[in-house]
Amino acid sequence: MSASISWLDLTSSDRNKVRSILDLFSEQGTVDELGLGSLRDAFSDALFPGTSVLHTRLRYVIFVPWLYQILEHRGAGGDVAEAARKKEIELIDHLAVTGEDGVIGVQARKSLARLPSSVYWFALSRWGIFVPQQSLSWYHTHFSELRRERRPEVTADDPGVLQSMRFTWHPRLPSPPAGFPSDITFDLTRQEAEFVQAQLVTQCKGSLLAWLADHATEVLPDSLWELLSQRNLPDEIAHTLELARQFSLVVEGAPLFYNLMLAEKRGEVNQSDSDRALAQGYRQAFTEWLARAQGDLQNFRADTLWAFVARQQVRCPALQRRFVERWLDLLRDGEAEQLLESSEIRSLIELRERQLKGAHRARLANKGRLSDWRGSVGVGRMQFRWSQVRRLLTDLHEGLAR
């Protein structure tokens, strides 16, 4: 049975948190088996505020407002959500003929469950494009009221600052081309790119996202960590990025060890040669990881991590702290062969899974859940949404160059 969530009377903040949890299952290597997701997200939000692992192309932050502006101008005819959905499906149909990458819903079309507006709504609010900075459901509820109170005049000279909050959409949002959404592509015009750049620089000030939006590079690297070599990167941003790099590396071994234990346990239960071979593969992967991470394991300090988390105002449960600190302590001074047989590490991993899931749902404690394991879960180094952000920034700088 697939998981589902019924929306209750949630605040905008609560809804965004739940959406971010759902987003985790769309990024390879980020299924949160050991309860590290909130720490990963703290870094992701600090570096790239407003972004999501579901983001594909930047011009969606222009498309969605345009669709709603059409409804505001013409009226929605009663059910705003349904009228907006029809407009978004129409947009998908027009984008699909371009053959471009990144079209959300190109396969599902009318059956699409999560529309582009839902995927990008937090960005629209966080970046100040949707001026009230409320949830999508709030907008739908207040649509008629907002439509009556719209004020088309501009009241501020600074492109990122408004003197009035009576707007629905930022007054300097560029106008759509004639016939929109017909003949539309993902190519930002220079005017659109300059508008988005201004919003990122002013609304996300002090973040790596804002800095990269304002500092075009010839080619954005595949690896996020290569940005540390940028000589003019501000110290505070560089410090956060370096801490993210260290954290992602020192905890990368934990899911490797967890999958090793799963492979060993299922191999014992089923007497399976394939699971034994899989376990050997994880032993080798853990050994290679340890060699790469040894220097950072020695230098990384949990106190620095907790200070960062506190600044981000992210909740950090005591059990999460203990797991990270104990993991670091156990790994710092051991050799690979010794660590792979460590009963303390195995107990730490098993206890952590029980804390998060309970004995009934924990794979290491429940044979039924163990049989559902497909050979790999949660492995891979944290990338903090870089692959998605890299695509968005590429779109931005290509638009600025036009």
Provide the descriptors you would attach to this structure in a database record.
402 residues
Q: Largest sheet at a glance?
A: none
Structural class: mainly alpha
Rg for CA atoms: 24 Å
Strand proportion, as a percent range, falls in: under 5%
Q: Count the DSSP helices.
A: 18
Strands, count: 0
Average pLDDT confidence is: 89
Helix proportion range: 55-70%
Mass-distribution shape: globular
Distance between the termini: 49 Å
Model regions low in confidence, pLDDT < 50 over at least 5 residues = 1-30, 151-155
Q: Give the SSE string.
A: HHHHHHHHHHHHHHHHHH
Question: What would you note in describing this structure?
Answer:
Helix content is 56%, strand content 0%. The chain is mainly α and 402 residues long. Mean pLDDT is 89; it is low at 1-30 and 151-155.
Task: Provide a brief overview of the structure.
By secondary structure, this protein is an all-alpha fold. It contains 18 helices and no strands. The N terminus is likely disordered.
Q: Could you give the topology of this structure?
A:
Blueprint: H1 12-23, H2 37-47, H3 60-74, H4 80-96, H5 116-126, H6 136-141, H7 143-148, H8 190-203, H9 208-214, H10 235-250, H11 253-270, H12 273-299, H13 302-311, H14 318-332, H15 336-340, H16 343-357, H17 367-371, H18 386-400
Helix pairs in contact: 2-10, 3-4, 8-9, 8-18, 11-12, 14-16
